[in-house]
Amino acid sequence: xxxxxxxxxxxxxxxxxxxxxxxxxxxxxxxxxxxxxxxxxxxxxxxxxxxxxxxxxxxxxxxxxxxxxxxxxxxxxxxxxxxxxxxxxxxxxxxxxxxxxxxxxxxxxxxxxxxxxxxxxxxxxxxxxxxxxxxxxxxxxxxxxxxxxxxxxxxxxxxxxxxxxxxxxxxxxxxxxxxxxxxxxxxxxxxxxxxxxxxxxxxxxxxxxxxxxxxxxxxxxxxxxxxxxxxxxxxxxxxxxxxxxxxxxxxxxxxxxxxxxxxxxxxxxxxxxxxxxxxxxxxxxxxxxxxxxxxxxxxxxxxxxxxxxxxxxxxxxxxxxxxxxxxxxxxxxxxxxxxxxxxxxxxxxxxxxxxxxxxxxxxxxxxxxxxxxxxxxxxxxxxxxxxxxxxxxxxxxxxxxxxxxxxxxxxxxxxxxxxxxxxxxxxxxxxxxxxxxxxxxxxxxxxxxxxx
Length: 452
Prior knowledge:
Layout: E1 6-13, H1 17-25, E2 32-35, E3 46-49, E4 52-55, H2 67-75, E5 79-81, E6 88-91, E7 94-96, H3 112-135, H4 144-153, H5 160-164, H6 169-179, H7 191-202, E8 210-212, H8 216-224, E9 231-233, E10 235-242, E11 247-253, E12 256-267, H9 271-277, H10 283-291, E13 294-304, E14 317-319, E15 327-330, H11 333-336, E16 347-353, H12 354-361, H13 365-379, E17 387-400, H14 410-414, E18 420-422, H15 432-451
């Protein structure tokens, strides 16, 4: 039997970065937050292990003046700039993590023809990144939706592979393992988005160059803390409908059907969920949601127990072309930068996305972990026999990626729809930063409605 309808000012649906951002800015309005899973954080997730943490989702964020940076600062979480190397490469047993990226080809076991092709493609990419850096700079008086539209439109009519030009398989592998971090293949993703990813990685001052000490879950938990029992876990929303006076939200929790009546709602679920639960979406918005593309992310964390300084201590990221994993990350990198005595062990994260991710999704979990571990030990042979824990996380609808033509969908996706406000990373191209910004944007619009 359904319980009596609950009455409140605002409901937030989803407790990932977008929903928690909105709820944080609305915390003085006592929002009810509905989350379908048993934890907050969505696709951002980490698990503590003493001084270490096992990371199983997003892990790099923008600076203090960003939307995520503001949430870190206000919530009391701690973030640090990532020191050392962000652009290492491992290829055919050779690991290169120091020096100029442009000179890496001459230190890797590739053919001389490949070295020259690598350099030519790298210089072309550098020119594209420089142009992108100028384009993406904020314009005075420009709103968040206007800036995001401008960025999505940039080189939106052809793919990242079109922009880089044809490459031999030998050279293609190096650029592909970075481009696919956005969960789509280079032939699928828009050129501007692909170039923007390199800009994000290379720009340590204005790009994604910070890590959260203790893991991302510490930030998610801090943002959820003010809501107490108004944070409802295991609450699966089945229907969101609005009329002239407010919004009705129906959900199930612990096997019971429940209903909330609110003056406004923030819906921060993924697009393929939002289109199913929200009634009466405009036809063009619904159509745009069906065109959005999500890629898989199959991620694993490995904890080791080695003692003493290691050659990877000042390295954060290593690209791993032609392996079962796309990249590997040293999550303890920022701990080493504090100057504190080095503790025992290291926490590593590896993952496969795009087509590699699809292959991993189809495999048994232990088989995936075995494959990932083999590659991790080949890239870092010093850890062989030192792995003490491994954890896998499979996400089918991982990240939405701006595909060719994505910019044409933005107007439909961001149009106002009354008392229901949408938030989420699918509304832009900055990942967690888009989620945080759209959450804050939605909260601002809700406040205007509540105060009207």
